[in-house]
Amino acid sequence: MTRLTALLLAGAASAAALATPAAAQQKAPLTILRIIDADRYDPVRSTATAAAEVVYMLADTLVTVDFDMKTIKPGLAESWTVSPDGKTYSFKLRKGVKFCDGRPMTPDDVVYSLKRWIDPAIKSPVAFRAGPVKDIRAEGDTVIYELKEPYSDLLFQLALSFASVVDKDTVEKLGQNFGVQGFNGTGPYCWVKWTPRQELVLKKNPYYDWGPPIYKNPKPQIDEIVWKVIPESNTLMAAIQAKQADVTYYMPYIALDTMQRMPGMTVQRQENYIYDVFMGFKVDKPVSKDKAIREAVNMAVDKQAIAKAIFFGKGTALPSLLNPAVLDYDKDTVAKMPKHDPAAAAKLLDEAGWKPGADGIREKDGQKATFTVYGIRNDINPRISEAMQADLRKIGIDMKIQLWDATVAWGKLATQEFDAFYMSYPYVTATEALNLYFASRQVPTPNRMNWKDPKTDELLKTAATAVDAQKRKEAIGAVQMQLTDANVWVPLASQPLWVVAGDRVEGVRAHGIYGAGLYKGLDIKLKR
Fold first, then answer.
1. pTM of the full structure
2. Count of CB atoms within 10 A of residue 340's CB?
3. pLDDT (tens digit per residue) in 240-290
4. Cβ atoms of residues 133 and 118 within 8 Å
5. DSSP structural state of residue 98
6. Which pLDDT belongs to residue 131?
7. Among 133, 178, 257, 388, which residue has the least CB neighbours within 10 Å?
């Protein structure tokens, strides 16, 4: 408590700029705090969680995902059917939907938006998520999504922000500046203005009354929302504590227990949230290509201690390659995952020919057991890397750390300069996660491991094209087992989602799809 008080006091001076008189606060918009901004807010051009969390409020998708993160519900499509061969999806569109400028949405708008997602000229970094598209067309009030082969993850991918419906005229008018200088979607809130790295202002869509059935009220209840960026976590914490903002899900984990005890504060966790942290190895680098090194690292790192220390008791150490909550998780991989045992790790290295040198760092055939890890400089990576570095030094492995600011990190992570990397990522199904990171076609990014394996590709395709759920589960389970045995990743922790709201707000419920804690923001009201 003493440490937290000191942090709050330290941040108070910086937070003072947010302060407003009490009377003015009552008339203020809903203010949501976060620590990072997006590069842009064009659904098909950004992979950033910071983009998705806003785009979900600006635009809609054909289908939505319930709070359990497993159940698909209606969105812009009120119903849909799938052909017996799994290749054709027919979406019957909801009537009465309007864009923020008042223009009625048509089936052609949906077709345009989905085709833009996969347009080679756009070069969308997430086009692969749309699946093997043969054709997308409108037939009356129905959109036909035709595939070259079955794609078992399609509905989940169509619920992500990348598949949002946008206005063609606005896109063509703004060009590369769509999602930078303006936006026109069918979402519950409309674009007002964006000041990069500072704030993004939204206003209520006056026409919106078609919110997904996961909410009690299909209409937005807030007139104006401000997404405000405060990169320094102590300042963010102080602002919420001083009631100078309303909601955040970027609260430092150290503060959560105190926030729960504060009168008027609501603190809730999304139990079904999946946002995992791992370190991945390039499997073709001089040191990390050795399976014994990768396995020893998995054994030497104290994941339980890291989860406890980094997330202050709020995170969970990952017991396996994937999160146990994910669809098609293979629980048998837990037994195959190396357990924390530094002594056994040292013995494994000895047997593999990695002998301690004069400086304590192991060597084999003239090669030092040294590797370099890249990552994004954020709230958790510096502490994770320091803890891992210390654990590995004890068994004679030297891990060098290079963390980059988010503005340059993604470019660095697309190179071949490093041996290992840190990543945090959201996902909904096992097939989605492993196709994203381990398919050969995804080299060099996001398959930064350079993992190219025919068996993996075959199993991933079997899972992705399966019409039968059991066949999909068996295939993707086999991939999980294969990759666990290869120790390509060091699964570290499941990052929790906690939403903190002040006493002006009611109706907040944590969601978390693709990291978006508030999703559509419906059901949220201001008491004054």
1. 0.86
2. 16
3. 999 999 999 999 999 999 999 999 999 999 999 999 999 999 999 999 999
4. yes
5. B
6. 95
7. 257
Q: Residue 18: is its pLDDT beyond 80? A: no
Residue 28: what pLDDT?
66
> Are 171 and 183 within 8 A, CB to CB?
no
Q: Give the mean pLDDT of 471-492.
A: 98
- Comparing CA positions, the residue from 523, 521, 505, 448 lying closest to residue 246 is 505
Note whether 480 and 320 are within 8 A (CB).
yes
Q: Which of 327, 275, 307, 246 is nearest to 515 (CA)?
A: 275
Q: Token digits for 177?
A: 């500046």
Domain 275-494 has CATH 1.20.5.320: no
Neighbours of 108 (CB within 10 A): 12
Q: Could you give phi then psi for residue 470, rounded to 5 degrees?
A: -70, -40
pLDDT at residue 158 is higher than 50: yes
Secondary-structure breakdown of the chain: helix, strand, coil percentages, each rounded to the nearest 5: 35, 25, 45
- How many CA atoms within 13 Å lie on the side-chain side of 18? 28
CA distance 374 to 420: 6
Read off the pLDDT of residues 72-112 as tens digits, 9 standing for 90 and up.
Answer: 999 999 999 999 999 999 999 999 999 999 999 999 999 99
CA distance 410 to 34: 20
User: Confidence band (pLDDT; 50, 70, 90) for 408?
Assistant: confident
Kindly give, in sequence order, each residue whose CB lies less than 8 Å from that of residue 519, ignoring residues fewer than 6 positions away.
56, 511, 512, 513
Whole-angstrom Cα distance, residue 501 to residue 521? Answer: 13
User: What residue type is 212 in one-letter code?
Assistant: P
**Residue 210 confidence (pLDDT):** 96
Half-sphere exposure of 136 (CA within 13 A, CB side): 20
Query: Cα separation of 26 and 28, whole Å?
Result: 6
Q: Pick from 56, 25, 17, 55: which is nearest to 39 by CA?
A: 55
3 and 163 Cβ atoms separated by less than 8 Å = no
Task: Tell me the C-alpha distance between 322 and 278, whole Å.
Answer: 10
